[in-house]
Amino acid sequence: MLELKNVSKQYGTKQALKNVSLTLPRGQIVGLFGENGAGKTTLMKCILGLTSCRGTITLDREPISRKNITRLSFGTSEHSFFPGLNAKDHRIFFEDHFPSFSEKRFQVLMDFFALPAGRRIGSFSTGQKNQFEVVLALSQGADYILLDEPFAGNDVFNREDFYKVLLGILEPSETVLLSTHLIEEVSDFISRAVLLHQGQIAGDHDIQMLEESGSSLMDVIRQTYQYRSDRVLQALENLSDVDGPF
After folding, report:
1. Counting C-beta atoms within 10 Å of the first and last residue's C-beta, which end of the chain has fewer, N or C?
2. What is the dihedral of CA 127, 128, 130, 136, to 10 degrees?
3. pTM (2 decimals)?
């Protein structure tokens, strides 16, 4: 179990996270949602030890350290691969450093995305780079797979097919924490939704329970973030009042 207790992070005067407590058992697909700047990426980086924070983060009651860090993997649109190496070189590197690396899963995903194994990763398009990040994160053999906006630069058909493939290849004990703005696309794919707002947990919802209550994830998110459906009309009216007719 991955557990966060009272995790806080501050950048200068900005409070990025404030007393975040969260428990992630094995075998869940969790959506992490929030506005830009809500703290989603910071939360993942705190879990991975990529940035310092206050509070405690444990994996099966042990601090995250070199002893257990391989049980966590990270796919990020900021990219963490070696741009001068090709896919084959990455596979060799991961096989040497991660005992649970799955060569079979790596090859299945490379074929699915139709990624060229012999080309330098730095020469890939943005979409291909993000796909390769996902390939590495899912093939590492980690128990907890953290994906931060992994679908940037990918078309809707690629994304929809990937969700189906992911559901097919995940083991029951693997947990995915997925940060994305594509809420409606993933609402049928995730089992749980965690909502961040201004660095704090604003909601934690079981998707099946939401459906049984007759609510949709989008309804809950609109209510949580107090979305105003009239704001576009109001902005246009204000512009018209200032500048006159278009």
Report:
1. C
2. 160
3. 0.87
